[in-house]
Structure formats: C-alpha cells, structure tokens
Amino acid sequence: MATLQDLEKAIDTLLSHHLGVGQYQLIQRVEEKAYEAYVFGLCLRAARELGVTPLLRGIIGAPNPFIFRGAPGQIHSRGRNYGYAEFTLNGHEFEIHAGVEFKGTSGMTHELDVCIMLAKAARACRNFHRRDAPHAASLVGGWECKFYGGKLQKGLGRAFVGLIDDMGAKMRLSGFCSNKDNLQLQLYFQPKRRPYPHFELTPLVPANEDNLVNQIKCELKKMTAAK
Q1: Other C-beta atoms within 10 Å of 172: how many?
Q2: Three-class secondary structure of residue 157 per DSSP
Q3: Partners of 96 in the beta sheet?
Q4: Which tens digits make up the pLDDT trace of 131-176?
Q5: Cβ atoms of 194 and 188 closer than 8 Å
C-alpha cells in the first residue's frame, strides 16, 4: 500500500516546481489531502503530455510554496496563497484546481477534490466585484479522491454519483479515484454517464496512472480538436 511518503515524492515529481523539490505545502499533511494533491499532479502530467506547459499560479502571488487547501473552499478565497494551474491547448484556456466548490444545477454548492475547468469562468469568479462560486457549466472534468487504510465504503460512490448528476450534462469527464478497490462499486459505476472508476490508483501502479492520464488527454484533445 502506498504511504504518505510515496504520495509526497510523487507530488514533487508531478508538480515540477521551478524552484525544485519540497516547494509545496499541504495545509493538512495527511494521506487524504496528499492523495488529492497527487491526482492534481496527474492532471498536470496529462497537460504536459499534450505538449503544453501548465503554469503554477497562486491566488495572491507567486506560488512559492504552492499551497494545497486543507478543506473545501471558494475559488476566490484569499485566506492563503492557494495554488492552481493554468494551461492553453489549441487556443482553449483551462485551469486545474483542488478542493474548490462549484454551484450545481440545483443551486447547491458541492466540492470537487480535483477539477479541470474553463479559465474564463475561473477568472470571472475571482473578480473582486463578483467573488462567486463557479457554475457547474464551467467544468470540463472532476474527480473524487479517496485514500483509505481500510475498506472502501459503497456509500462514497453513491454520494459522488448524486453530486455529478447535479453538475449537469455539460461536464465531459468524471472519475472516482481511490487507492483501494471495491467490486460492487466497479459494477455500480458501469452505467453510462456515471463516473469512471480509477481504483488502485497510486504511484506504486504506473499502469493505473497511465489510464487516468490518457483518459484526460483524450477528452481534452476531442474538446479542443487538438491533433
């Protein structure tokens, strides 16, 4: 089983901070939050493998260090210099975030552990005069990230399906990421429009990392008509 140290080593590699290793901060240095940061890093890897360079940003200034949230928060929150990444693919601008809340079609807000969204909508929500939660229509992809030492609970999958339903039909990609596996959840996620199960996703299983990264690359290429 992957350890906190395994996750932290992977975060350093995937983040590829220009100042070198150790240039990030987990507000909560626990496996669950490190796992979210790790999946965030896999999104960065997907962008790089498409031939673009994601830029690390901080909401207040240079992300030195790059700060990962310790709890769900608003995209415009300035409590700390929270980090995010931006990249442009074939003229389309995107941002990658961790722990940000979105407004669903019902009007209720929901947290996504990791997401890729339209940069234009993110910038609008950070506008000083607006400061609002981004709408679900701005989402490209969203992932639930669950790191467990024990058995993965079935209820987690049902809850995430409900969240995705409230995000509407425009969201192109969703996934349930965990270091564990659960046969019943595998079956539960099979119907169309349900999140893709990324079970046993850890730095110790490179093939499963490749699966997530390739899925993100494929969807971004289709969306942007990138070759």
Answers
A1: 14
A2: helix
A3: 85, 116
A4: 789 999 999 999 999 999 888 888 999 999 999 999 988 899 999 9
A5: yes
How much is the pLDDT for 170? Answer: 85
The answer to whether the beta carbons of residues 119 and 134 sit under 8 Å apart is: no
Residue from 103, 18, 125 nearest 62 by CA: 18
Residues 6+ apart with CB under 8 A from 155: none
Identify the pLDDT of residue 192.
85
pLDDT at 61: 93
Q: Residue 49: which of 212, 204, 225 has the closest Cα?
A: 212
Domain boundaries, the chain: 4-217
pTM of the model: 0.96
What tokens appear for 13 in the block? 């590699």
The secondary element (H helix, E strand) that includes residue 49 is helix 31-49
> 124 exposed, middle or buried (CB, 10 Å; 0-12, 13-18, 19+)?
middle
What average pLDDT score do residues 215-223 get?
Answer: 96
* Residue 89 CA: distances (Å) to CA of 44, 216, 227: 13, 13, 10
Computed over its alpha carbons, how large is the radius of gyration of the chain? 16
Asked whether the beta carbons of 217 and 49 are under 8 A apart, the reply is: yes
